[in-house]
Hints:
The protein is an alpha/beta fold. It is 40% helix and 16% strand. The chain folds into two domains: 1-147, NAD(P)-binding Rossmann-like Domain (Rossmann fold, 3-Layer(aba) Sandwich); 153-184 and 212-272 and 286-325, Alpha-Beta Complex (UDP-galactose 4-epimerase, domain 1). It has helices at 10-21, 33-39, 85-102, 123-136, 158-167, 187-199, 218-229, 240-253, 261-267, 277-280, 301-308, 312-322; strands at residues 2-5, 26-30, 47-51, 69-72, 107-111, 141-147, 150-151, 171-175, 181-182, 185-186, 207-210, 216-217, 234-238. Strands 3-2-1-4-5-6-11 form a seven-stranded parallel β-sheet, with helices on both faces. The longest helix is centred in the first third of the chain and has 18 residues, at 85-102. The two termini are 25 Å apart. The chain binds NADP nicotinamide-adenine-dinucleotide phosphate. NADP nicotinamide-adenine-dinucleotide phosphate is lined by residues 6-12, 30-32, 35, 52-55, 73-75, 88, 111, 113, 128, 147, 149-150, 157. InterPro entries: ComplexI_NDUFA9_subunit, NAD(P)-bd_dom, NAD(P)-bd_dom_sf.
Amino acid sequence: MILVTGASGYVGNNLVRRLVQLGKPVRAMVGNVEKALKRLADVEPHIEIVKGDVTRPESLTEWMKDVDVVIHLVAIAIEKGKRTYELLNTQGTINVVEEAKKAGVRRFINMCQNGAYPDVKSRFLRSKGIAQEYVAKSGLDWTAVRPSVIWGPQDEFANVQARLIKLTPIFFPIVGDGKAQFQPVYVGDVVEAIVRCLEDDSTIGKEYELGGPEVLTYEEIVDRVLAALGTRRIKVKVPVPLLRPVVAIMQTVLPNPPATTTLLELLAVPNVIKEDGLAALGITPKPFTPENLSYMKHFTIGTTIGKFFGRAFEEEQVRQAAMGK
Length: 325
Ligand SMILES: NC(=O)c1ccc[n+]([C@@H]2O[C@H](COP(=O)([O-])OP(=O)(O)OC[C@H]3O[C@@H](n4cnc5c(N)ncnc54)[C@H](OP(=O)(O)O)[C@@H]3O)[C@@H](O)[C@H]2O)c1
């Protein structure tokens, strides 16, 4: 049995579908079962959906029974109230590791993040770095993947730019100088990397940095999104200190803010991989090209506003179903 934590998330639902396709038995652990039932409706008859909270170890114990592999995906990029990076990302991972050990699970695949180390400035990246350090010292048969920013039909990075473009008819604000570098990696390639780690024990004890085939600046990413949408905007560079208060207000007011203070912080940190983990795992990455982003054309002003106000989840499901995803 494979236990996937965070199974209803962006990476999680793609991974679960792939595991089902491969005929693997999956226990999908989530915080909100109702949301998971909607998001995983097409594969629901083939999996077990269970409710667990990584911050409450006792809620995990039962779900570790009969598990051979844990694939740990849960993390938050936006803090809310008591749900801090340290509690969810660090302590949450420690709890999952400890419960796995208690239940005698040996294999553990941890979703880390490119640039996440215990000594970095960003609290978000640090929380993930400390978690990975704990996993590496756990004594389990662990493997870690460290993707750069992940793109795909449900992502919260490139799609946010596309949605904002829909809302800004003439000018488009570029955060900072637009020169921060990224290596967007396709969600399907990240999922495939996890599957290869799962199937190949020579990956035990290793970390794989995952990046797409090109290093792109933030401004180049916006240019590709504009090309995908078949539109143009006058780009205006806005210094981060000017954006911070606006973003902080959006983050407080909107259920799904288009930008967060963490995103602003991350836009300042180069997110380029040093070692090509996809190549090491024998995967040819899908490029971040306007053709491959054509799904963005389906975004409308209505779904964009709905998304930022937290309504668009179902609309997104309908759209994806219509596209046969
Ligand atoms: N997205 C990227 O570009 C990117 C890049 C590099 C690395 N990563 C890493 O990839 C992983 C998955 O990211 P994602 O973008 O797929 O995240 P996501 O869409 O926000 O999904 C997070 C998942 O975690 C679950 N969850 C949240 N709090 C929980 C809790 N207390 N207990 C149990 N489950 C909880 C959520 O379920 P509920 O909503 O039901 O609570 C959801 O299934 C994370 O570790 C992230 O750091 C992501």
